[in-house]
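2024-03-11 09:14:02 INFO worker-7 job=invfold-0412 stage=load source=structure_tokens
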């Protein structure tokens, strides 16, 4: 299992554990003497007043599927936030927790903060998987160590130099930065 997959599984498990721990807190908010008393005694939580008959099961199944879809959407958003934050060099676990706890407000906060962190290029995130080939001599074509100033086979200079002052210059320059010679 890769590192990012392990982290995502950890986030999902953490979200599940927090839900299990936080579930009893609903009694503090929705019990008969709580802040939102009677909230769970109306539709869509109770179907006593709808007279649905034998179709009662379909209403409950629809609510269950809807709740499952919302939960799947929350997990998908958490995974996206984690991966996006990691690509931008931010702490993915922290931002996933902020979005999990804050829901829509946490997501809006993340979307605002992420605009200040551009996506890192793959070379900035980690080492490149494509090895850079060693340089070849311009004169004889043989492979030369990148630290050599001259080719050990033919003696040719490995880097471009100014014809006037012999200082190193880079490809694409129009003039030497040391003496001003135009190329």
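2024-03-11 09:14:09 INFO worker-7 stage=emit residues=183
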């Amino acid at each position: 299992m890769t590192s990012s997959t392990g982290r995502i599984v950890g986030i999902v498990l953490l979200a599940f554990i927090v839900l299990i721990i936080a579930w009893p807190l609903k009694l503090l908010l929705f019990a008969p003497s709580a802040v939102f008393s009677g909230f769970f005694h109306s539709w869509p939580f109770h179907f006593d007043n709808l007279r649905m008959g034998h179709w009662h099961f379909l209403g409950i199944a629809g609510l269950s599927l809807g709740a499952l879809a919302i939960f799947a959407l929350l997990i998908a958003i958490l995974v996206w936030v984690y991966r996006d934050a990691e690509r931008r060099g931010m702490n993915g676990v922290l931002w996933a927790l902020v979005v999990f706890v804050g829901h829509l407000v946490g997501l809006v906060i993340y979307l605002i903060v992420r605009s200040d962190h551009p996506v890192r290029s793959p070379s900035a995130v980690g080492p490149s998987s494509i090895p850079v080939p060693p340089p070849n001599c311009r004169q004889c074509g043989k492979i030369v160590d990148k630290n050599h100033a001259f080719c050990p086979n033919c003696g040719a200079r490995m880097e471009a130099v100014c014809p006037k002052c012999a200082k190193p210059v880079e490809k694409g320059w129009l003039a030497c930065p040391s003496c001003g010679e135009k190329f």
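2024-03-11 09:14:09 INFO worker-7 stage=report msg="The chain is about 45% helix and 0% strand."
2024-03-11 09:14:10 INFO worker-7 job finished
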